[in-house]
Every structure is written in C-alpha cells, then in structure tokens.
Design goal:
Layout (H helix, E strand, L loop, with lengths): L4 H36 L13 H14 L6 H19 L3 E5 L5 H10 L4 E5 L2 H9 L5 E8 L3 E2 L1 H9 L3 E9 L3 E4 L8 E4 L1 H6 L1 H7 L4 E4 L3 H9 L4 E5 L2 H6 L2 E4 L9 E8 L9 E9 L6 H11 L3 E9 L7 E8 L6 H13 E11 L6
Parallel strand pairs: 1-2, 1-3, 7-8, 7-9
Antiparallel strand pairs: 3-4, 3-11, 5-11, 6-9, 6-10, 12-14, 12-15, 13-14
Helix pairs in contact: 1-3, 2-3, 11-12
The structure holds the ligand C=C(O[C@@H]1C=C(C(=O)O)C=C[C@H]1O)C(=O)O.
Catalytic activity: prephenate + H(+) = 3-phenylpyruvate + CO2 + H2O; chorismate = prephenate
Protein name: Bifunctional chorismate mutase/prephenate dehydratase
Keywords: Amino-acid biosynthesis, Aromatic amino acid biosynthesis, Cytoplasm, Isomerase, Lyase, Multifunctional enzyme, Phenylalanine biosynthesis
Amino acid sequence: MSLNLDTLRLQIDSLDHKLIALLNERAQVSLDIGAAKKQAMDPQEEDSTHVYIPGREKVVFEKVTRLNPGPLAADSLCAIYREIMSASIALQKDVMVAYLGPVGSFSHDASMKRFGDSVQYASQGTIADVFEAVERGRCQYGVVPFENSIAGSVVPTLDKFVKSKVKIRAETYLPVHHYLLSKSNIESIRRVYSHPVALAQCQTFLNSRLKGIELVPCASTSEAAQLASKEKFAAAICNRVCAEIYGLDILHADIEDQQDNTTRFFIISDAWDAPTANDKTLLMFTVDHRLPGALCDGLKVFKDHNLNLTKIDSRPSLIRPWHYVFFVECAGVHGDSEAMHTVVAELGKYCLDVKIIGSYADQLVQE
Ligand SMILES: C=C(O[C@@H]1C=C(C(=O)O)C=C[C@H]1O)C(=O)O
C-alpha cells in the first residue's frame, strides 16, 4: 500500500479537530467539578477548597495505563495526562506550589512531575521556608524532600513536622542522578558545593576523585550550581538540568553511589487527601522514657491492629534533652478510618502526645 503524505496529514488534522473538542469537553466537566467542590465547602473556608486530589489522579493514571492500546508508550500517555490534569487544576483555581529552589533543584523536578506546567511555582530558599509558605497560605501546596535511598532521612523536614500544623497530602518518588558541574576542569577544582544529603549520596566518587577537596554544604543542589557558576575553581553536585540553567560544563555524570538512587518527596498542604484503595499514614508520638518498654508498648499497638510499619525514625523532641519524638509510617490505613482512630486512642495510653502528620495514596508500586 502506498502512503500518501498529504492524505495522512489530512487524517491528523481531522483527528486534532476531534481531540481539541474532546479536551475542551473534559475541561468543561473539570470546571463543573471545581464548582461542585466549592459548593460542598463552608463559604468561610472557601480559600482552603482543594482542587488538587492526588488520590483521584492516581486512579486516572492507572486507568490511562490500563486502557492504552498502543502504539503510544505508557510513559508518553501519562505525561500527556499529567499536563491535561495540570491544566484542569489551573482552570478550577489559581494554584501556587512552593518548592526548595532555585530552579533546577530535585524538588523543582519532583514538583513539575507532580503538578505539571499549568500551575504556578514559588521558589523558596530553605525547607523551612517551604513549610512557612504553606502555613501562612501564600502557597496551597509545598514539595519537600523526606528521605533518600542512600543517605536516609532529610532531618530538616522531620524537624519541621514536629512543630508545624501542615499535613502530608501526597508522596512522590524521584530517581536521582548526580552530576559534577563546573566552569573549570576537574584537576583545578578547589571547592565542591552541594546539599549535605546530595554530598552523602556521592561519597565513593568524592573519596576517589576529589579527595581532600573542600566540601561546602548549601541549602539546595541548585543553589550549589548557582554558587559554582560565580566561582572559577568551584564545582557543584546537582541535577543535570543545572548545566544549562547556570552555564556550567558537565565534568562527570551519574556520580551517585548507587544507580537506583531515589528520593521520596512529600506534598504538604493544610489537609490530607480522602481515602483511596491503598493509603499510608505517617504518625508522630513521644514516649515517657521513664516507663520501661513504653516504645515497645506503643509499637505493639500497630502489631495488634495488623498494620505493617514501612518506616520508623526518631528525633530529639527539642522540649528537653534525651527526650525523643518517634515517626512511624504504616501501610494500608488512612487517617480518617475507624482503625486509625482506635490506634491513636490506644497509643495515647503509652505516649505523651500522638499526631497524625498525613495520609496519602501509596505511590511506591506505580512510579
Ligand atoms: C477534576 C478534578 O480535579 C483535579 C483534576 C483532575 C483531572 O483533571 O482528572 C483530577 C484530580 C484533581 O487533581 C477532580 O477532582 O476530579
């Protein structure tokens, strides 16, 4: 069969016609959904109406992947849907997302992958600033790193959860590849800038190729790139995109200790999302260390309710020395469920204070 380019292009034109009509039909329904969400809210609370529903988006992505007959790759179709939903959110409300900046950070990457191009972004200097932007209502959503598969927990994020009222609304996992960027060559480098968690992910490379070189911790990897771009004999460890943004050369690619290096981010907001088919919940509590076995009794509550723990962490309570806050994440349960209400009540018998920090759709299998 001979293929005629003009005829094929006419076919594309006709399909685009239909696609545009369908996309706008979808956008109109999304506008109606936005109006329905507002109607369901107390008028005084209108400002906190949530347009971003990560649990629903997960269902849409799963459906799109399931229904895809090809030849489009599943990732391509999901990227298209990311943007369709981003535009749909922006139609419903002006949404501002705070992230640890400047532009080019992994938090920026994670934010874009979660919210797409149609919402607005506000770069923040520190993780604490991201929390503050959400607490003060300047941004409805914030994106903060929570843990890395090589370096472990991101301490400033854990510490902010102790005092803050913000809730976790979603989680997202980002594969992380680090680059050594500089204006100079590797032999002339005298100083390497990066975020401490990023430096911790590149120990093997730093010890073999840049042993003894001054390591300077920064608030973010993109701030590191910005600083390195202003100094002749400095380098930054950061995301590849920083090379173009900050005018730096790539000296080395993929310098992380393990190639499957991944960072988990949380999307924070003033409220968690509604239950989905598969949620996780992060709780925080302190135990009275004078009572022998208090932590063990607390953890046994989860076992008694058949809840699988997916993470446990502790941090100083900052109330008095040698007094700790424990963070426990459990799978298969939502903060609004009867089961979780019972767990919180039972934990109250052994723990000084118990707080649910958030409930979110489990993304581990999908991403
Ligand atoms: C349309 C909605 O609002 C947003 C947009 C979505 C979409 O375009 O499919 C899905 C979830 C929300 O983030 C909704 O809540 O269903």
